[in-house]
């Protein structure tokens, strides 16, 4: 599974003009990311919210499907700068610091820098 | 994962929609109930530690390592943020050191007294000079200690403004990679030390004698940068009580991101003034130390940094975009320039003034590394003509032309007829040879000199008794008084190193 996602992911940078991951209404007022639509279709909250559904999602859930921090970092190693391997922290920034499922997201780097990350889903 | 979900997910991914975003948000949490009990006999301790270090920046990491190296067995670092390292991780961590191997090799004569005098002079002699001297003296033994634990520095000394001699080392690949990550690796791998992130320090538990018994924390704390005051409004996390047998080291950093606290201490520094410190640099921990009786010092002193070194402001003309006019000598110290900018911005609807250079000015920059960073990231923009620059940056052209005409005549004459800048020393560098460059002069809130008062053993001083609070230590930016009105450049790193190491050694002895 991980390998599949990572290879598709690598492919999507070259081949896909599609910008998935945009926010859309999933249940009532609740918004979610279009790349996770299959989970919303199945009303599947527990894959991410492994504790209480009202509690925060665990990064372990992200890693289950998308791969470890090191794998993610190497999948984007051709990007300059590599958002998943900043010199400050290495591949050690929890996913949800930058990525956000139900609300707009903001890249940590750009607290100080002004990097363009065209593939980032705000 | 059940088979059905696996299949549907795979089918979905085959559709080619897989993307890099791992989109997950901390969801809305049920409010935690705050523990109100101040009766320590009623506290049920969840865990016991010999030493708890609060904060995972440079000072805290050094303290935890040194505590373990000196025999404290059960030592833990707690960090409220999801990422480690605080402001240290995003700092250049220029390390000024007395009698380093590089100074010895180059035959540079230096001393702790000279370093302390440089700091005191920059700070208007408003600093606690015994603490400054202790820090300066300690750098000599800390540098080889740090190198042995994996820190990597370039084999060159920086010669920086305000330092009598070249004494500043700088890490390979910046502070996060060159210093903090190797130290953390040493702590977690070689020393098997523990770090817990998303654990928020709430308050100290003191006994009837005012001695530290333990702390209250919240585990699974989700810091929220969107809250006006995270310390007060954030209700996430589960309350736990940690008993502490040797001591608590508060390495909790400064408070420059705390806009509410800032507005109380510095009313003329408005919310549009940016910050270079990390998201979590709020005043919450400082307030809990005050509540525990700690003496504070210099809370109204702060430091600014620009996108380029202050020394390189002098090579161009600093103008207000609204009028195109200069308003101060660009050769002033950072504090004076920054305060003038804050004043100007009150009058021009919060627009940043701009520093304007020609090619000669750019060629004279002393810090090419930061110049190139500014150009690469688009903070500094290059233009073919003054007209294009004024147009691109929204500066009043008539005013700007008049300003530059006078500026260039003054440069030739070697005398600034408006603000007395020593233009003779600028080798007749003007603003007339294309291409031209513009960069916003953003005074960024960079450091807070204030904090709690400590003694030479990094013990926090009680304001009523003027004696150390038993079991309570502090180090790094959380402490105040070492620097005075203006903190000399490249001195927060030696402070964090020196007093981090001292705090660790002292708490282990307790």
Descriptive report:
- The complex is a heterodimer of chains A (122) and B (510).
- Chain A has 122 residues and is α+β, with helices and mostly antiparallel strands.
- Chain A is 28% helix and 7% strand.
- Chain A has four helices and two strands, in the order H-E-E-H-H-H.
- Chain A has a two-stranded antiparallel sheet with strand order 1-2.
- In chain A, strand 1 (23-27) and strand 2 form a beta hairpin.
- Mean pLDDT of chain A is 84; it is low at 8-18.
- Chain B has 510 residues and is an alpha+beta fold.
- Chain B contains 15 helices and 18 strands.
- Chain B has helices at residues 3-17, 58-69, 101-106, 112-122, 129-148, 174-190, 230-233, 259-265, 284-291, 334-347, 359-363, 368-376, 386-393, 397-413, 492-509, and strands at 47-54, 75-79, 95-96, 168-169, 194-197, 200-206, 212-219, 238-250, 296-297, 302-305, 317-319, 354-358, 380-383, 436-440, 444-448, 451-452, 459-461, 468-474.
- The longest helix of chain B is centred in the first third of the chain and has 20 residues, at 129-148.
- At the A-B interface, helix 1, helix 2 and helix 3 of A face helix 1 and helix 6 of B.
């Amino acid at each position: 599974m991980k390998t599949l996602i990572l290879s598709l992911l690598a492919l999507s940078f070259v081949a896909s003009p599609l910008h998935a991951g945009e926010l859309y209404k999933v249940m009532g007022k609740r918004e979610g990311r279009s790349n996770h639509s299959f989970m919303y279709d199945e009303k599947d909250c527990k894959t991410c919210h492994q504790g209480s559904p009202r509690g925060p999602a665990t990064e372990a859930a992200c890693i289950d499907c998308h791969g470890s921090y090191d794998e993610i970092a190497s999948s984007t190693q051709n990007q300059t700068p590599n958002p998943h391997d900043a010199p400050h922290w290495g591949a050690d920034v929890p996913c949800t610091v930058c990525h956000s499922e139900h609300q707009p997201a903001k890249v940590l780097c750009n607290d100080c820098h002004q990097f363009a990350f065209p593939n980032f889903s705000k | 994962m059940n088979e059905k979900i696996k299949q549907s997910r795979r089918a979905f991914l085959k559709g080619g929609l897989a993307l890099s975003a791992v989109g997950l948000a901390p969801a809305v949490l049920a409010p935690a109930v705050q523990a109100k009990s101040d009766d320590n006999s009623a506290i049920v301790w969840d865990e016991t530690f010999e030493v708890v270090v609060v904060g995972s920046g440079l000072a805290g990491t050094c303290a935890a390592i040194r505590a373990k190296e000196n025999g404290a067995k059960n030592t833990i670092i707690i960090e409220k943020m999801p990422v480690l390292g605080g402001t240290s991780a995003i700092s250049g961590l220029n390390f000024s050191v007395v009698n380093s191997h590089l100074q010895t090799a180059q035959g540079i004569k230096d001393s702790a007294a000279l370093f302390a005098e440089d700091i005191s002079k920059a700070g208007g002699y408003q600093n606690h000079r015994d603490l400054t001297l202790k820090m300066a003296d300690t750098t000599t033994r800390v540098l080889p200690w740090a190198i042995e634990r994996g820190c990597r520095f370039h084999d060159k000394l920086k010669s920086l403004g305000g330092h009598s001699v070249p004494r500043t080392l700088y890490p390979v690949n910046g502070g996060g990679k060159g210093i903090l990550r190797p130290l953390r690796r040493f702590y977690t791998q070689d020393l098997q030390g523990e770090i817990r992130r998303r654990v928020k320090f709430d308050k100290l538990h003191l006994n009837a004698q005012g001695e530290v018994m333990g702390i209250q924390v919240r585990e699974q704390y989700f810091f929220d940068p969107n809250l006006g005051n995270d310390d007060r409004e954030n209700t996430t996390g589960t309350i736990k009580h940690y008993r502490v047998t040797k001591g608590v080291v508060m390495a909790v950093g400064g408070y420059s991101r705390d806009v509410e606290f800032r507005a109380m201490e510095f009313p003329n520094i408005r919310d549009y003034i940016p910050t270079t410190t990390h998201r979590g640099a709020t005043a919450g921990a400082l307030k809990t130390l005050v509540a525990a009786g700690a003496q504070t010092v210099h809370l109204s002193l702060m430091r600014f940094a620009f996108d380029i070194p202050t020394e390189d402001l002098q090579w161009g003309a600093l103008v207000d975009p609204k009028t195109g006019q200069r308003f101060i000598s660009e050769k002033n110290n950072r504090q004076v320039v920054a305060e003038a900018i804050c004043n100007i911005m009150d009058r021009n609807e919060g627009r940043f003034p701009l520093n304007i250079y020609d090619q000669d000015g750019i060629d004279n920059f002393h810090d090419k590394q930061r110049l190139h960073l500014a150009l690469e990231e688009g903070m500094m923009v290059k233009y073919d003509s003054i007209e294009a620059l004024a147009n691109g940056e929204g500066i009043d052209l008539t005013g700007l032309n008049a300003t530059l005409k006078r500026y260039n005549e003054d440069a030739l004459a070697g005398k600034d007829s408006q603000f007395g800048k020593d233009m003779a020393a600028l080798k007749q560098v003007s603003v007339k040879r294309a291409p031209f460059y513009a960069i916003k002069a953003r005074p960024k809130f960079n450091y807070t000199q204030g904090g709690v008062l400590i003694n030479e053993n990094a013990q926090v001083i009680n304001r009523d008794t003027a004696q150390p609070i038993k079991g309570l230590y502090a180090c790094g930016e959380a402490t105040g008084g070492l620097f005075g009105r203006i903190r000399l450049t490249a001195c927060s790193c030696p402070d964090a190193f020196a007093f981090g190491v001292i705090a660790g050694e002292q708490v282990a002895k307790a």
